[in-house]
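User: Predict the structure for this protein chain, please.
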Amino acid sequence: DSAASKYAILVQNYGNLGLTAMTLDGTNLDYSATVSYTLSTNSGKVTIKGTAPTTIKANDRNLDGDYAVDVYDYSSAGYALPTLVVNSGSKMVVEGKLNAAACVKSGKVTYYATLEQAEAANPSKKVTVLNESN
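Assistant: Here is the predicted structure, written as structure tokens:
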């Protein structure tokens, strides 16, 4: 609570990051009056691993700009396209909004920043756009 007014993002990824059986709690990210991101991946790959769930909680204010998970295409600034992968047998629990496009391949769920990126990476697979509270 003491840091609540200092931060709007809990984890912002630009590299490769593995998460195993963790809870990322963004319920008190109150620095910004309009947005907060518990897990924001702008480049590289975030991988959810292990059999125990990884839980990602959004700010409990429930504003339009509060996201538990955001996969954002920042390639215009020269960064690699981001992905969020939930390994087969692993579980990601999202409490709040998720902003991404998703595709399931060989039991693994991969989230992309845009529908176009998901379709290009998986031309023969069904792609689901996840945003707001899906």
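The chain has a mean pLDDT of 83.
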